[in-house]
Model the fold of this input.
Amino acid sequence: MNVCIVGTGYVGLVSAACFSEMGNTVTCVDVNPEVVKTLQAGKVHIYEPGLEDLVRRNYAEGNLIFTTSLAEGMERAQFVFITVGTPSRPDGSCDLCYVEQVAREIGQHMHKPVIVVDKSTVPVGTADRVRGIISEELAKRGADIEFDVVSNPEFLKEGDAVNDFMKPDRVVVGTESEKSAEYLRTLYAPFARSREKMIVMGVRSAEMTKYAANCMLATKISFINEVANICERVGADVRDVRIGIGSDHRIGYHFIYPGVGYGGSCFPKDVKALINTAHEYDFRPELLESVDNVNNRQKLRMAERIIEYFAPQGGVAGKTLAVWGIAFKANTDDTREAASLAMIKELTAQGMRIRAFDPVAGEKVKSMFENDPLVEIVDKQYDAVEGAQALLVVTEWNQFRTPDFERIKGSLTAPILFDGRNLYPPKMMAELGFAYFCVGRPDPK
Done:
């Protein structure tokens, strides 16, 4: 089949690579000519395991095309996927300006029937807006061309997106048209060989499903972090509690790992967007507001503990903190809404120096801090700890899981370790001579 994908960001590029891998001809459209040139050169501008190989191979085989021209992309397309960004406005609402601009251009360039697919995460009612804009542009041209607007939200995890797309749990399609549903069923058939995975529902229900899914997962994260904070105060061990509740199949183990809170491009934005949508309909979503508030507080919890620890020693001003991990999670270079950045901002505001390392995101964030004399981004893991007063682990990269603790002790001015991901057993850390602080676990006896 012939597919046009507008936007080569995270969702668009993964979708394009995976569709092309199944033998479809996919044309990716991006307004940035530099991004297009980079992709044509076989390089990927975002970090996602396995993605670059897919892009290179399918581009070389002619299944994947990159262009800045939407007209070219739509020339033979049966589907036009909208995968552009939908950033948050200051009030938490979703900015649809890019989606609306693409809709206008689709209406201007459409010359034959096509199925327009909203794959960007958009508020309920967006498909109706897109349909209206396209119809308006067709009317300006005096053109009478059949089209449909379908919601097909993505459910990709950063760091495992290719696998998620290739082996989806479900494919949600929102449409009132049986014809459109069948076309999409054909397109997605190679990804559903073992069982039927497509769930067809109304357009608004599909749009809501995406937000509900992400908000549910965010709620689980905030819940376990809230429990962890209580555990610290009552002397319980949140890891034991997690096993105790996770064994209940109604709860499960997924997304109940305590830590530094959620970040990235999806959960923070989507929780805020659904809160804003509820407010627009004169409803106060108190649970979702609490999920957001708990997460914002949790991002700073380790920074607060660092400040508390050093308060009797004259405070954090002038001291150096080594930080391992800047990306909001492992296997990505995404630092959007990352807890590391919130903590760095809080600690440097009080005069603490930061020396940070991240195996993938480090190079990306150097420019972010190039004018900040208190922040240094280093290229080697153990360079970060040399001469620092303490180490803070923020991201659960594999190389941080079993580090050389003796080397860490020898590099720090004192063996002090703050673990935002509960990577290490407290008893072992005590035996190694570390002052060790983690999330929701009591000090070892």
Notes: The first helix runs from residue 10 to 21.
